[in-house]
């Protein structure tokens, strides 16, 4: 499973958000892929095949290769203390005290995938809620404190799988000043925005298509990028999202000469 699989997951999820385009939504294809990979590792028979098809598992991949891939990612991120670009994953499985996991799966979770496994009384919803939200809060450096609510948990649940992804990094070129600007979202409102005079050789990446424009802003040392994609004037954002595919991501992130001045 590769970056292409993560992009493919994003393209599969975006159409499912049709009814939510009037809201601000953040989702992580990487986190979704990681969560489904956990299910795939623990599944068999038809369930294994269906999950494998969804996450785009190549026929040449075995469960062992999927395990090793995620294990390698987790070790790389936890060992790179010198980098200012920090990425951390959290894997949590919360199971009913009425059931148990296979010992082999538990061992893989703990030794390979940095997994947290807890047995809970699902009839005590407040306790389950507290355990899950505490895990998410700790895994995201206290950035997400209410990941789930009471009405999203049922006493009929037997297992809840949680994956977290936390990212933090300084910009390669800092935004020292903020100013209040109108943000035309839903609803429109004034918010603090970054104030920056775009200068030649700053290293940003601007790409344009027939109906869209994309600006790539690098984090420290150009080790990671934030890409902002917006429709051109008179083109619908909803229509742009509906037409996004794997090729779109290739166009959005295509690198251009960093010494070329950006349009203001």
TrEMBL record:
Coiled coil: none annotated. It comes from the Eukaryota. SUPFAM superfamilies: Serpins. GO terms for cellular component: extracellular space. Transmembrane segments: none annotated. InterPro entries: Serpin_dom, Serpin_fam, Serpin_sf, Serpin_sf_1, Serpin_sf_2. One of its GO terms (molecular function) is serine-type endopeptidase inhibitor activity. Residues 12-261 form the Serpin domain. Belongs to the serpin family. This is Serpin domain-containing protein.
């Amino acid at each position: 499973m590769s970056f292409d699989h993560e992009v493919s997951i994003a393209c599969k999820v975006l159409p499912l958000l049709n009814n939510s385009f009037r809201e601000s939504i953040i989702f992580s294809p990487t986190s979704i892929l990681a969560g489904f990979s956990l299910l795939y590792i623990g599944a068999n028979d038809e369930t294994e095949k269906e999950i494998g098809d969804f996450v785009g598992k190549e026929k040449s991949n075995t469960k062992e290769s999927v395990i090793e891939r995620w294990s390698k990612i987790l070790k790389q991120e936890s060992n790179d203390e010198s980098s200012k670009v920090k990425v951390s994953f959290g894997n949590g499985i919360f199971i009913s005290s009425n059931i148990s996991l296979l010992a082999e799966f538990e061992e893989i979770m703990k030794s390979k995938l940095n997994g947290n496994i807890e047995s809970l009384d699902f009839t005590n919803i407040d306790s389950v809620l507290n355990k899950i939200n505490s895990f998410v809060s700790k895994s995201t450096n206290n950035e997400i404190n209410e990941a789930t609510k009471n009405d999203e948990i049922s006493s009929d649940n037997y297992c809840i799988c949680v994956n977290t992804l936390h990212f933090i990094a300084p910009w390669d070129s800092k935004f020292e000043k903020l100013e209040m600007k109108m943000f035309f979202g839903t609803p429109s409102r004034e918010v603090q925005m970054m104030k920056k005079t775009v200068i030649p050789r700053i290293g940003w990446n601007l790409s344009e298509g027939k109906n869209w424009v994309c600006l790539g802003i690098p984090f420290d040392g150009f080790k990671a990028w934030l890409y902002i994609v917006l429709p051109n004037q008179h083109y619908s954002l909803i229509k742009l999202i509906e037409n996004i595919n794997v090729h779109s991501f290739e166009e959005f992130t295509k690198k251009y000469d960093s010494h070329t001045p950006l349009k203001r």
